[in-house]
Amino acid sequence: MTRRALRIACAVATFAAAAPAAPARASLDDAERAWQSGDAPRAAELLREHLAKNPDDATSPRALALLGRTDADPGAAMAHWESLLERESSGKLAAEAHWHRGLHAYSAGLYLGATEHFGVLADQFKGEFDRGRALLWRGRAELGAEKLAEALDTLREAERASRDAEDRRTVELTIAHVEFRLGNVGEALRRYERFEREHRSDGRASSAARRTVECLRLLGREDEASSRAAHVEQQYPSSVEATLVRAATRESEARANPTDVAEAPPPQGPFLVQVAALADPKNAVRLRRRVQALGFTVSLQLGDGPQGPVNRVLIGPFDDAAEAQAVADSVATLGDVSPRVREAAAVRTSAD
Description:
By secondary structure, the protein is α+β, with helices and mostly antiparallel strands.
């Protein structure tokens, strides 16, 4: 080989080594890995790229599951999960489809439909899905549907079946809510007291403490209620619960002295569940995502607070105050929020 030919060959080899490699074709495996790493936008991008080159894969259970996980349109996502169930009735992907369909029905207020999907998960997918979690959400859905006796039975079963520590705490608190709604105030009081005592570091402890005050007042134990109210204000001074306890105390005092304050008109619907009112919009967006993960449709509303603008995280509206309260109880299971039910008109005009 001549020197000139040798120089050309070396130059070609050097260029080939320096040239970027051809991009690898995206696969379902790539999309799944991106999803598992928490990068949903990247998973959606890889999935679109793969399906553009392999359109026949769009009806495979794996692709339908990825479409359901990554589609930003909730209605379209549900259509993907439904299509998956038409093709696959067992296994982990089918279990995941029932889970998402249950959450979607729950968020839409279709509690009976949610009960069905969570029940299927609990009864038919014991090896593919956490049975305790399925029973917990079935109990929540039954609570939303006002099937209180059924909810109590389901939640007691969930209490025995739950293996996850967070789920067990949520079951404990939800049972207390159901007992309260059933009128079993003494049992509800016992459970609320135990929850606060055993889970003081849990963000829901302040909510349980406030509920003990309500229970004591309903039981006519006003002196103990006053003592517990002081405990709530002392232990959780900056919480929404402390504010609500102070308001309830004023209301109780007004009832005891009806001549001092004119009787307040009964609350009028519609009602909203105010999850929180946050000054930082980024925190409000993050909280909205967490609440949406529970299956609820959440909105943000800009308002004026005592210290300046606030971003209200809201669910609703609801025509029925009891339904709104059931949703507030469910959202309270997040652990570090204290949702409260408010009249929609009051939210629009409030400076809180």
